[in-house]
Amino acid sequence: MTVYFIGAGPGAADLITVRGARTLARCRVCLYAGSLVPRELLAECPPDARLVDTAQLDLDRITAELVAAHEAGHDVARLHSGDPSVFSAVAEQMRRLDAAGVPYDVVPGVPAFAAAAAALKRELTIPTVGQTVILTRVAQQATPMPDGEDLAALGRSGALLVLHLAARYVDRVVAELLPHYGADCPAAVVAMASRADELVLRGTLDDIATQVKTAGVIRTAVIIVGRTLAAAQFPDSHLYSTARPRPCAPGSPAAP
User: Fold this and answer.
1) What value, to the nearest 5°, has the Cα angle with vertex 106 and ends 102 and 110?
2) Terminus of the chain with fewer CB atoms < 10 Å: N or C?
3) Where is the signal peptide (predicted)?
4) Pick from 116, 105, 92, 127: which is nearest to 10 by CA?
């Protein structure tokens, strides 16, 4: 039997992938993060499925549930918010399953930063303005950041930054980025992206912290900082540019 790490998406139940929903529908056991995963998704599980909310479970107990389900001959859905590839705590679960000899697979999901960009109606990479997106967070009570990955170091790149798990520390974020981006740099915060209670704040580094505190945003939000958020004057991308030479399609009037 197999453990499936499934990305549930950013919040809206209909943003799970088709593969994710189909996998969920055949798993007799589902472990889910109750504080983050929409309850509506659990309706995709078989009617007799064992449902385990992991919100209050530590890694040992989660692993024990996964191993027990495997030994009982059941496929297991481990439902994570967003996409398992970033800030999901999947790596340590995989490591333990490797040690236990339990096979697993990963079904990607829509990440929070993508849902935030959709809410803002912005492409995060703009020709000649910015072609790099850095996904990061700040170290506070959680695991320390590795050397060289502090905000000051990342900010020196000038790239667009997407910060997860950082809304409650917005004052610190602004203070560390101001010297590198300037007070007029566009900034945005999207809380509860894709959900019915989605909140979008737009501004600059000069005023975004005040907006966040006024709105009372402290969790389930991403902070985005960078010039591409407000870019308006830029050339068309080379891919679709009318100036790009293109071979004539067979049968077209210009074809030999």
Assistant:
1) 155
2) C
3) none
4) 116
Q: Give the type of residue at 167.
A: A
The pLDDT of residue 242 is 75
Cβ contact 69:102 at 8 Å: no
End-to-end CA distance of the chain: 58
pLDDT beyond 90 at 176: yes
Burial of residue 30, with CB atoms counted within 10 A of its CB: 0-12 exposed, 13-18 middle, 19 or more buried: buried
Residue with the two structure tokens 């495997």: 70
Residue 82 region, left (φ>0) first, then alpha (ψ -120 to 50), else beta?
Answer: left
Mind giving me the DSSP string for 186-202? EEEEEESTTSTT-EEEE
What's the pTM value of the predicted model, to 2 decimals? 0.90
214-236 mean pLDDT: 94
